[in-house]
Automatic annotation (TrEMBL):
Gene3D superfamilies: 2.60.40.4070, Kelch-type beta propeller. It comes from Eiseniibacteriota bacterium. InterPro entries: Kelch-typ_b-propeller, Kelch_1. This is T9SS type A sorting domain-containing protein. Pfam families: Kelch_1.
């Protein structure tokens, strides 16, 4: 610290620690020094309007507040000052009574001062509070810009229960923006994340990434319109879609562990079917691949059981969601829709 002092007050604002006032060994001091822990350096700030020994200080809102203390005449003070990050002090409303060696804190939109030494030099049991009107809430963020788009091609485009291979290769060609901006772990193909252990190829114009094949090959036979979603390094969303043909069989259909269950426009859910008890986690994902709810985690029951979502009394935005069942060695994903 540039100047040795006792009886100082301290407060933190804008990643700097303020050391305020005190006693320099001769008289009360008005000095204010600030310490930057990132650089490990001290700097002098504008001095207090008057010397104060044993003041109290705290950060409140975007300012440092200093109350009371003993002035140059060693008298207890009722003055209150505050300064913003520029260090320029201004006078605030005085305390109802003079205090030194008090304690101060900020609670919500109020300053609270308690205890200390009163004007007569006796211990004080008084407590004061000064509240300010809460600032209005910030305006809502602007509506998001149109979602970016891309062209998606899968290889292979036809799967069956006996399909060989570990992956589906997804080739992503952005429409008018750089493929190097794609945050690859954010990608979701019908709710399924990419295999980050597989080969990845990216240039300024296109991206090729692998997705696990099992969640798609295990679906019931039919034609699917798969949705790809993701975000860019600028936080913008993008989406693409492409068809996939699954040549299922009756054996595959019976072995499905997860299928959607529609109960009405505002209520849906899934049917879970497991041949043996095992630990599972069942999550609901939005179209960005973010987990918005956890339906179940723990040991499963054998046989067939249902889970409703949204739950009774739960309100969620309408739209498309994905339910993902994760178990050892396998992940199953189905799409559900909340219509109102």
């Amino acid at each position: 610290m540039p100047t040795a002092r006792t009886g100082v007050a301290g407060a933190a604002l804008d990643r700097q620690f303020w050391v305020i006032g005190g006693f320099d060994g001769t008289a009360p001091s008005s000095a204010v020094d600030r310490f930057d822990p990132l650089s490990g350096s001290w700097s002098a700030a504008p001095a207090l309007p008057e010397p104060l020994w044993f003041p109290a200080a705290t950060a409140f809102g975007d300012r440092v507040w200093v109350i009371g203390g003993m002035d140059a005449s060693f008298l207890r003070s009722d003055r209150v000052y505050s300064a913003g990050s520029d260090g320029v002090w201004r006078s605030e409303s005085s305390l109802p009574a003079a205090l030194a060696v008090a304690t101060i804190g900020a609670l919500s939109n109020c300053l609270v001062v308690a205890g200390g030494m009163d004007a007569s030099g006796m211990s004080s049991a008084l407590a004061f509070s000064q509240c300010v009107e809460a600032p209005p809430p910030p305006p809502p963020p602007p509506p998001p810009a149109d979602t970016l788009t891309a062209v998606l091609t899968l290889n292979p485009i036809t799967l069956n229960a006996s399909s060989n291979g570990q992956w589906i290769s997804a080739h992503i060609l952005p429409n008018g923006w750089a493929a190097t901006d794609i945050v690859i772990p954010s990608l979701r193909l019908d709710g399924v994340p990419p295999d980050m252990g597989g080969p990845i190829s990216v240039t300024a114009t296109d991206l090729t990434v692998k997705f696990p094949r099992a969640p798609f090959a295990g679906r019931a036979g039919g034609n699917y319109d798969l949705a790809l979603t993701g975000i860019t390094t600028e936080g913008e969303s993008f989406r693409a879609s492409t068809p996939l043909v699954v040549q299922g069989s009756t054996v595959v259909a019976r072995k499905r562990t997860l299928r959607p269950l529609a109960r009405g426009p505002a209520s849906t859910g899934v049917v879970v079917s497991l041949q043996r008890a095992e630990p599972v986690t069942i999550d609901v994902l939005d179209v960005q691949g973010r987990c918005v709810d956890r339906l179940y985690q723990g040991p499963s029951a054998t046989g067939e059981w249902t889970l409703d979502w949204p739950r009774a009394g739960q309100s969620v935005p309408r739209g498309t969601y994905f339910v993902r069942l994760s178990r050892v060695g396998a992940t199953d994903v189905v799409r559900i829709a909340v219509l109102r």
